[in-house]
């Protein structure tokens, strides 16, 4: 039996776009793992009427599970619990034991901010200790408790807004009796992801169209393709009985796109590069990416085993002084040129004592473009101490932010190819 | 008269959390500027029934304007226009002139990917040239045209999913006759933002509570506060007639929180630091932030006028070789210590030839923590060539990602204070 769910994200700061929502996507991922079918995510501001309308909409859409995020704070505009109580037809009552536990959590905070208004804090704590009749309490991960509230048709899981608190509370929420009573009925779903680089999305769409004629049971697969940071992701969700159909599709993609398919086991490009690096060290030399390449290489826990460091040489003088790029070369070829990228990579190898180095120099815009080197022009060079080399020059589309981000994707794939043994023929 | 709006974001990759939605927040920002009251954002997958349900929900919520994003591609799972046509009770008809314009746009793409299936491309183009009766066409910014479709109560603005295409299409959409017929009725709203750093959100809540007793016309202000990357943002939206009430609230906040209020004109910390830097150059020396500080300082267009570069010294040997931090100091005090942060800043000043340098060294986790230096412990040091110095040591909450990000916020504010003339007393 399929379990259908909806997510309600609350908060005027999210609705108005001032803060990017991280909770909806995160909970969506957990639901996917649990085989729960997510139908809708809705976002509303701190207005009780809009929140209640969204809850009623999700109920009318036959959801079994509704997860709300945010609006559990101590202040007056935090209204979620009041609205959920009304929606589920349950009265709110103060839970003195819970109130005492919240007060205990606040003690160190009160000690750290001695000027805090104690009366305001007490009022906030009393508000946070209001529990709808018959609801299960989820212990606070910050100061706000969560709740699981049975409503008429659906069960409402009420979670706090700060992503860290929400994520810390999730294991208790999803293991609770009230949650399992609903979600335990979900089917066993599997999800697989293929990743390709250097191919337009329409080519994958065409391959999937061809699969329609040749793969039996294709309709039982829920396949989505999407462009993500310059890569194409093909994700499929299916019941265990459709494993064979999925295998056939994966084989067809591997057969038709052997050069661009780089991950079949869900590994990201970060995973692939980290595993190829094993035992070797890497450094970067960056201009237009301004540290984003180094930040991406150090994003993973444990990256200190392979990342030695990076020199960001934004100014031309820095390219010369810190990476040993001859000033004459910059003058002759320009700071954005394959030759300067090459010299930056060589400089990073030597100065950082790394086994592999990646250099990026380009024009992120919006200014600085010329007729021959328009905004978006970027040169990459990856080098090993053994002298293997891979270079790339491309004009990236998009605005400054997109160009800078895409720089790092191209860089990751250049590293992947170099570490995998590819190299340009010697000049 | 107030104009009420909803946004529908479509796409299984967004619903399932694999891709973060950038369109909802962006359109929300535009609506705020136009004085349109945004009530709901809803997200659905590529399922026609769920999309139609969301359109009907927004209609029932008395919206005048509905903006949809995504689902306009050439492939079979791009269904938005079909659903919007059904929802608005309008038939779809092929527009041969539009089809020819799309084909023209595709010509260079076809030349670049010679293996593309021409028949599949033709079928996709024919699909994208279907127009609901009576709809206004918005010329493609990529290959997909947008549409403005009058429905029963609301007007539906149908926009493509790629953020760049959507943003490029917005000026034409919002200037169109069909759009202005609805949105032209919106009131004149103003929005102001105050930003504070180093203060808990509850303190601002308390100040706003006090305002209730003293500020006349407070109820006419729509005030929201939120925590964002370690700062507290207070945003108010109001009609011009409430300007005085807003001024009174702003004055009260300035009076009660003089040390933590750093922006009253909407300027971000990036704006403030960039403007304080005017004429001076900055460099960074980074360990745990792994390039994120440099990336943040180079995020703005024109940052090359003040950013010289950065040395990311992830390994201890790199701190010694590239920043001149004595190996004995690292051994005696540890890589994460105020002394090493200080030496890193001094090294960055000298090697990058900058006027100001900021160093960050810490334990981002999840591993590497000790009893005395648990995960999240970070030391910062900001220095000028004149010898002024500001140091900070803190234990940041959160996971690796949050610690690394928060590092940069603390770093920005240390730079702001140093550039503003603050300095620690000489040791």
Task: Give descriptors for this structure.
homodimer, about 425 residues, alpha/beta, Molybdenum Cofactor Biosythetic Enzyme, Chain A, Alpha-Beta Plaits, 3 domains, 6-stranded mixed β-sheet, about 40% helix, globular
Gist of the model:
The structure is a homodimer of 427-residue chains. Helix content of chain A is 42%, strand content 23%.
Spell out the blueprint of helices and strands.
2 copies of one chain form a homodimer.
Chain A lengths: L3 E7 L1 H4 L7 H12 L2 E8 L3 H13 L4 E5 L10 H8 L4 E3 L1 H17 L5 H11 L1 E3 L3 E3 L7 E5 L4 E5 L3 H13 L1 H7 L6 E8 L3 H14 L7 E7 L2 E8 L4 H14 L4 E3 L5 H9 L4 E5 L5 H6 L9 E7 L2 H8 L3 H7 L4 H15 L3 E7 L14 E8 L4 E7 L4 H20 L8
Parallel strand pairs in A: 1-2, 1-3, 3-8, 13-14, 13-15
Antiparallel strand pairs in A: 4-5, 6-7, 7-8, 9-11, 9-12, 10-11, 15-16, 16-17
Helix pairs in contact in A: 3-4, 5-6, 9-10, 11-16
Distance between the termini of chain A: 62 Å
Number of helices of chain A: 16
Summarize the main sheet of chain A. 6 strands, mixed
Number of strands of chain A: 17
Q: Quick one: CATH class of the largest domain in chain A?
A: Alpha Beta
Helicity of chain A, as a percent range: 40-55%
| Overall number of structural domains of chain A | 3
Assembly type: homodimer
CATH topology of the largest domain in chain A: Molybdenum Cofactor Biosythetic Enzyme, Chain A
Largest interface, Cβ cutoff 8 Å: A-B, 104 and 103 residues
Structural class of chain A: alpha/beta
